[in-house]
Amino acid sequence: MATKWQDKKETFPVIDVRNLTTNFLPMILHKAQQVNLDNGICVVQSFEPKPLSSALKDLGFEHITEKVSDREYRVCFYRTELKMITFESGADMPFKPTAIVNYKAIDDILAGTVVDFWELIWGKEDPAIDLKTKLLLSMSNAIGASRFRQATRELIKAYSLGVTVKELDELFSLFAWNQGVGHFSSEIGPSTVFGVYKQIKKREQEGLDRRKILDEIMETFGDKNPDVNTLYKKRIKCCDRRDEKE
Predict the structure, then answer these.
(1) Residue 187 and residue 182: Cα distance in Å, rounded?
(2) Each residue of 22-36: pLDDT tens digit?
(3) What distance in Å separates the CA atoms of residue 77 and residue 57, rounded to the nearest whole number?
């Protein structure tokens, strides 16, 4: 893809994340927000990081991708607009597809294949199903399969895009209908996804605005919560000081 700025890309700061085994997306998003208009950054990864390209597009970046080898991609981003980062834009939507890092641990080419599948499902330019509805469908499928970790993440993302308590009321009624009262009582009721729903409903009734509710939810049910995070994280015992140093 020919661009007006491709001759400048050699001057861009380079961020090499190939050896990182943790979620690198928040770090890059933070750095991208600091980039001035008509400047750029270059990200090096062992697979093409298409979710990152989608997020930075929402921040006003164009990009070009160079495949150096099967295990080295260089993606250069150039800022043509100064867009504000918001949940609604998609760039700051809670939770990124961090599980892709798990596939990278197995094989870089496998990670690239999963990224392509992710783009087919979530990265379409003009989808027939809007993103909020797609997230609610994905959440419903996850609850039906008792994948409460995934369901929790999808619910929080859908809420960031404007899903209402009334919509959630009807959805959880359907879960009781379709899954059965016994299953709902023993499995769905004690789950993190039901905990998020209850917190949203309670805090809205108390008059808290959506952004503050989201901040509270992410504090309790974000990636720091081992029942929600998709990456392995060693539990730190409060009384074991040795663990804190590891």
Answers:
(1) 8
(2) 777 778 888 888 999
(3) 9
Contacts 24+ apart (CB under 8 A), 57-63: 58/83, 58/85, 58/89, 58/90, 58/91, 59/29, 59/32, 59/33, 59/83, 59/85, 59/89, 59/91, 61/32, 61/35, 62/3, 62/5
How far is CA 81 from its chain centroid? 23
Four-point Cα dihedral 169, 172, 174, 177, nearest 10: -120
Give Dmax (Cα) for the chain. Answer: 63
Nearest by Cα to 153 from 201, 99, 101: 99
Q: What is the pLDDT of residue 26?
A: 77
Res 217 pLDDT > 80: yes
List phi, psi (to 5°) of 85: -85, 125
pLDDT surpasses 90 at 233: no
Query: Are 178 and 160 spatial neighbours (Cβ–Cβ below 8 Å)?
Result: no
- Domain ranges in the chain are 1-97, 127-226
Find where tokens 């004690």 sit: 190
C-alpha to C-alpha distances, 17 to 46, 71, 231, nearest whole angstrom: 8, 12, 16
CATH code of domain 1-97: 3.30.110.40
